[in-house]
Each structure stands twice: as C-alpha cells, then as structure tokens.
Automatic annotation (TrEMBL):
Key words of the record: Hydrolase, Protease, Serine protease
All residue ranges annotated as the PDZ domain in the record: 90-156
Protein's name according to its UniProt entry: Carboxyl-terminal protease family protein
NCBIfam families the UniProt entry points to: prc (TIGR00225)
Length: 434
C-alpha cells in the first residue's frame, strides 16, 4: 500500500474512533466536550501523517503507531508502558521465575533509570550494584529517554554473555563502568536463620513470590518460643500483593492492612486482617532500606501503622501504585497504572516511601578496644582451627561448619551489620516491655 493509501486508512480509522468517542461523549460531563475531543484527534492524525511523509527515515506505519503509543504511556507515569510483541514475551518469561539477566529490579525516579535493588546472590549483587544507583548507559548507549521495558530488554540476554553498565552513584565523584556476566536468575524468596547466642528468629524475604507466606508460616511454627522475630525486607523490590497482605495478616488480627483507590469505583478495594489468620504475637522488627519497594512497603508501612512492629533502617523507595496488564491483542499489551495503595492510616507511599521508626544507615558496629581485641582473638582461634584441620581428617567438620553458616548468623556477621544489631537490640527492649 502506498503512502496516500495508508493516509486514507488512517483517516478512516480516525473517523471511526472520533465517531465512537463523539457518540459516547453526548452523555458525558460538560467538560468532556465532543468538539474538544474531535480537535485533539484531528491533531493526532495530522501529526502521524506528517511524520510518515516528511521524517528523514522511511518509518513503517505500524512503527509510527507503536512509538506514539509508547510515548503516551511513558508520559503518563514512570510505571505505565507499552509492551510490544517482544516485551510482552519477555514479561511472560520473567513471570515463570527463571530468565537470563543481571538480577536487578529497576524503576524510574526523577526521570532517571534507577536501581530499586539487586536480587540477592545474582550477578548484579556480586558485582556490587547498590539500591539508588543510576544507570546512565547500557553497553555504551545512553538511557536518557529510555523506558523501563526497553532498558530491561537490553540488560537481558543469553547466560554467560557480558554487559557493561555505566553507574552514577551518590558519593562517587564521577560515573564508572561495571562489567557483569549475565546468568540464569533463580530467586530463593525466603530463608530463615537464628542469631548466635540470641533466641531470635531471623527471616529474610528477598521478593514476594507465591511461596512467601507458606514458608514464613513454616519457619515461625518451628520456633514458637523465640524471643522475637526480625523480618528482613532490605533490597526487596516487591511482588504479589496477596502475599504482602497475607504476610501482615500473620501478625495483625484486625483492621485494614492496605487499600487501593483508583479512578473507577471498581478499582477500589480494602484488604482486612482476620483474627483466624494471626499466627504469632512475638515481638517483631522489620528491616528496610532504599531497595525496599512496593509489597515490601505495604508490609512495613502497615505493620508500622498497626504499631505491631518497629521499623529499622532507611527510607524506602516509594512505589505505591497498582499496575495491570491489559492486552491489546494476542501479542501486545499495556502495562497501566489503575490505582494507588494507601496504608491503614490513609497515607500513601507513592514517591514518599516509609520512614523507619529508627533510622540507621548501613555499616559496621562501632567497636571498643576490648571488643576489637575479642574479635581478633576469635579470628586467631578460627585460623588455628583451620591449620589443625590440615593435619586431621576434616571432611565432616567442614560440612558441619558450612551447615552452621546456613542456619545461624554469627556474632561476627552481626558486628558487620549495624542495622541488624539495632534490630536485635530492639527485640530485647520489646521483650522486656511484654
């Protein structure tokens, strides 16, 4: 079909759209005037035809429409987007829980492609990528004006292939390159440990997949006589809403957990706690940071509003909107923001986040001279034991040590994490007050 033919098709399509909108607008509110809509649609059709006729490159008609839709979605908000055929398939692959990539969750913050958090024990995590890092370039290509989906598509790829991302980090004088080797991303969403010399259960939730609540239940039932629970949601980018709601319900027996409000009344919903789902009344501390987003913010913010937990760490990311996937056809779809989340107190977390009760920045626990000597002494003891192991048959001993590391957080590890140390101290205070 020649260009004039395409233009006629476009005008015909526009006429159909206009007639449909004009018909519906007759019963609309006064401000939704049909003539204004008609003028706006006329401007759109003229713009598209002008681009098709005069743009320096010969862009196919479908590509112009795709770019128009993509630009529309991008300008609505940072989380709405157009999923073309490739992006739609990539999203479906990611939903299956195993894909080739770097292991980072990204979002748009103040117009910049920003790392929400690296996924634990993935290539990005091992390469030292941190929450709040701004990705300036991907393999030399600037990310300015790039959508989240476009950026994610560029970062995904075949396992064992290299990629270089250019990072701008707060506190660094200039941007720097990080080379990462892609790998299959497998996410272990929940694991638990106990704190050495403390009767405290530590539960780490890395993301909210469909298994979170069942696994957390299992761990809590294993330690019913613990003095308290530390729920670590640091660098957790979110996930399934129902898992966030049901996780809060394990600790809260009544009241609203979270609500969502949209333009349409059908999008409004309230999620409430039920006494029958409550599993424990143990003292609870939740760890968060700038990498805690979405479902993590719902859990921490709701528990904070209910005064059920002490929140420790840094201000969270601030993603409190609801997106749904609305298919256009079998191969393409829109990711569209349809509502915002509100915590029990009525406050929103969108672009604001959750402010901890106790603000603690990451770092090591300050040591006095005596305690520093004790650490050195324990390190020396460990060194001597390793030397002895070279003389004796130590296969079983090494297995035991490895097993201990998987189930226990040592005091040495606690000393390297002042946020965790603060959480432990908070549990002790809460236990005394019970």
């Amino acid at each position: 079909m020649n260009k004039s033919g395409k233009f006629l098709v476009l005008k015909f399509m526009g006429a159909l759209i206009v007639s449909g909108i004009a018909a519906s607008s007759l019963s609309a509110k006064n401000e939704d005037d049909a003539s204004i809509r008609l003028e706006a649609l006329s401007k759109l059709t003229k713009t598209i035809s002008t681009v098709e006729k005069y743009y320096v490159d010969d862009i196919k008609f479908k590509e112009i429409i795709d770019k128009a839709i993509s630009g529309l979605m991008q300008n609505l908000d940072a989380h709405s987007s157009f999923l073309n055929e490739k992006a739609f398939k990539d999203m479906q692959v990611q939903t299956n829980g195993e894909f080739g990539g770097l292991g980072i969750t990204v979002g748009m913050k103040d117009g910049a492609l920003t790392v929400i958090s690296p996924i634990e024990d993935t290539p990005a995590d091992k390469a030292g990528i941190k929450p709040g890092d701004i990705i300036l370039r991907i393999d030399g290509n600037a990310t300015i004006g790039t959508t989240i989906d476009e950026a994610v598509n560029k970062m995904r790829g075949k396992p064992k292939t290299p990629i270089t991302i250019t990072i701008l980090r707060k506190g660094e004088q200039k941007p720097f390159d990080v080379k990462i080797i892609r790998d299959i991303i497998k996410v272990d969403s929940v694991y638990a440990k106990t704190i050495e010399n403390e009767n405290i259960l530590y539960i780490r939730v890395t993301n909210f997949d469909k298994n979170v609540v069942s696994k957390v239940k299992e761990y809590i039932k294993q330690y019913p006589k613990a003095n308290g629970i530390i729920l670590d949601l640091r660098n957790n980018p979110g996930g399934l809403l129902n898992q966030a709601v049901d996780l809060v319900d394990l600790f809260v027996d009544s009241g609203i957990i979270v609500s969502q409000k949209g333009r349409e009344a059908s999008e409004n919903a309230e999620y409430k706690a039920s006494a029958g789902a409550t599993l424990t009344k143990l003292p609870l501390v939740v760890l968060v940071n700038g990498g805690s987003a979405s479902a993590s913010e719902i859990v921490s913010g709701s528990l904070q509003d209910h005064k059920r937990a002490v929140i420790v760490g840094e201000n969270t990311f601030g993603k409190g909107s609801v997106q749904v996937i609305l298919p256009i056809d079998d191969n393409e779809a829109l990711r569209l923001t349809i509502a915002r989340y509100y915590l029990p107190s009525g406050r929103t977390i969108q672009a604001v986040g959750v402010t901890p009760d106790v603000i603690v920045h990451p770092g090591k626990v300050p040591q006095s001279e005596d305690s520093a000597f004790n650490i050195k002494e324990s390190e020396l003891k460990a060194h001597l034991q390793n030397e002895l192991s070279k003389i004796n048959v130590t296969a079983e001993a090494n297995k035991t040590e490895s097993k201990d590391e998987k189930t226990i957080i040592t005091q040495k590890k606690v000393g390297e994490d002042i946020q965790l140390k603060t959480a432990i101290d908070a549990i002790k205070v809460l236990k005394i007050k019970q």
